[in-house]
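Researcher: Last one for today. Full complex below.
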Amino acid sequence: MNMQHGNSVTRSIVLGFLLGLSFVAFTSFFSSGLGASKAIALAAFHIQDWITPISEDLQYMHYYITAGGKDPADSTFYSSTYAMIGLMLGALFTSRLRNETKLAVTRGPQVGVAVRLLFCVLGGVMLGFASRLARGCTSGVGLVGGMQMAVGAYIFLFAAFAGGFAAAYFVRRQWL
Amino acid sequence: MAVNEVSIPFLEISEYIPVTNEHLVAILIGACFGSVLYLSGLADARRIAGVFYLRDLSVPIVMFSAIVSSMVIFWMLMATGVLEISEVTFLPTYVWPMVVGGFILGIGMVVAGYCPGTAMVATMTGRIDGFVVVLSIMAGDLLFGNYFEYFSGLFVSSRLGVYRVHELLGVSFGTAIFLVIVLAISMMASLRALQRYFYRETYPAQGVFRRVDAIIIGAAVLVGAGCALIPDSWYLQEPEIDPYHIYQIPGWDRGPKP
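Model: Here's the assembly. Have a good evening.
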């Protein structure tokens, strides 16, 4: 486990400031929040639509695959998708630059690969479901909403920390 | 400041590749986002899960710092008239969906070790578990989308519309900004104090904050105090005639502010 020590609080504060700048820039250009989960959901819904076309009965997904009734060329609806393409390129570039790109499974010292991947599936389904229910994930609702002073964002963040600390005891074998 | 005012003349390639200048701006901002997430170490599942064992506090510190700095800059842009309220889509507040969604998301974060954005970052650095998490997030999205009829009641319940902290607390807008800054700093300090309490042998000589951090934090408090002096009419220039909504399906977010 990479322990926090030295000047990493300062480093985190400075990196957080840069993160904040990108949120402000994105919101001022595209009016919507910089969220990660919307792009993933759009991809998932479009894949399902490609296999079996989504009818109007599935109101929620139909809204997404029709770009919310807007012109699909309207840059604001798909702006978060392009931001996620940028996120992937930026992450790839930075990790290549630091020579840290490698094929691996991140896991705690006490679990095998199979158990870790099982937990990934379980946790991932929860993340996807919860981010749709809450209208966004940590970045879209928690951080951008927090920036906009939305009460819901602070409710969301407190609930997320409460959920994390509540569940931490039960999965401690995975990490400690 | 609308996106079509941005012009990058040497990149007029949209005739051949479906990437316009607007998309390029989005890609660049996303690249900044991804690089920062990677550099803060959030691409490592052990560090994200480590938050909930108080082993590694870089995630909450990055989050609090991002909220505070973006909030001050964003509302300063509003107060100086660079941005206008009608140009921004504000996040509506839905109490119960956000409580339940947040709680499940927190559990998912400690079980999977990622949140959606960091899972994508981890995927690109070659972490197979990150890729599995992204695929599972898609499965979770499809679960919600396909069985929406069962969750739609919760999804649209307890709507408060655009509801900001100052309305909740009944104070002026600037004071609310100051209070959020103080809240973020005290959360940061209490997490650090708890970490020092539980892992005493790991951090024998360190204070809760080092001197350089104390200077940054002091500056943030001063900026917050300055924000508190600015009158509300500067921040919220126009009267809120129409609720700002994210989803525009009739019956979901339409209607007057409750």
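DSSP finds eight helices and no strands in chain A. The helical segments of chain A are 8-30, 37-51, 59-65, 79-97, 113-133, 138-147, 151-168, 172-175.
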